[in-house]
Amino acid sequence: MTLSKGRRNCSFDSNGQGSCTDGGCGALVCDEHNGIGQTPATLAEWTLGTNGQPDFYDVSIVDGFNIPMRISSNEGCHVADCPVDLNINCPGPLKGPFDSTGTAVGCKSACSAGLDKNQADSSNCCTGSHGTPGTCPASGVQYYNYFKSNCPNSYVYAYDEDSGSALWTCDSSKQTDYTLTFCP
Predict the structure, then answer these.
(1) Exposed (0-12), middle (13-18) or buried (19+): which is 26, by Cβ within 10 Å?
(2) What element of type H or E holds 148?
(3) Which of 20, 58, 99, 106 is the most exposed place for a label (fewest CB within 10 A)?
(4) pLDDT value of residue 21
């Protein structure tokens, strides 16, 4: 899988170490083996197909949102996107982090905000007794409708494939070129 994410207001030293207001991972080049780094972060995700398997791609806000994002292609495959700035109207319990002026630069997911106090057994995180699609429906995820209604072509929670508008495919035999646009 290939991941890409946006980050803002970063400062790095000559060794590539540093920080960002949002979306950072502690370094100029993020360690692909140790996760995405700081949440909330909008992610672009691809798994490129081989041997007749399709390419899979999505814009994920499962770990929260920090910047609008769009994935398009030269082959006319479906656009995956979250084109609006969710930080502006982010619900109070999810809002943050904030920049030096006090403006929200992120909107946490209900899971990353810890709204149900037990991330190990959480309907917001789809963990523990809620760890299957049958025990973690979208209706049990707080603020799902806020995210999905604003970003209907994005991946909003762990089992969002059932929405039919979260995970997209494209014929890998076309050798598609994808374009990732930040703040479309």
Answers:
(1) middle
(2) helix 144-150
(3) 99
(4) 73
Per DSSP, the chain holds a count of helices (H) and strands (E) of 1, 9
User: Domains of the chain, with CATH numbers?
Assistant: 2-107+147-182 (2.60.110.10)
Q: Which residues pair with 17 in a beta bridge?
A: 27
Pairing mode of beta strands 43-47, 8-12: unpaired
d(CA 5, CA 150): 19
Beta strand segments in the chain, E? 2-5, 8-12, 18-22, 43-47, 55-60, 69-73, 80-82, 168-170, 178-182
- In contact, 20 and 26? CB cutoff 8 Å: no
Residue 3 has a pLDDT of 65
pLDDT in the model for residue 72:
97
Q: Per DSSP, what are the bridge partners of residue 27?
A: 17
Walking along the chain (184 residues) 10 residues at a time, the average pLDDT comes out as 71 79 67 67 92 94 95 96 97 94 94 93 97 97 98 97 94 93 94
* AA letter at 70: R
Preceding peptide of 97 cis, ω within 30°: yes
DSSP states of 51-65: TTPPEEEEEE-TT-B
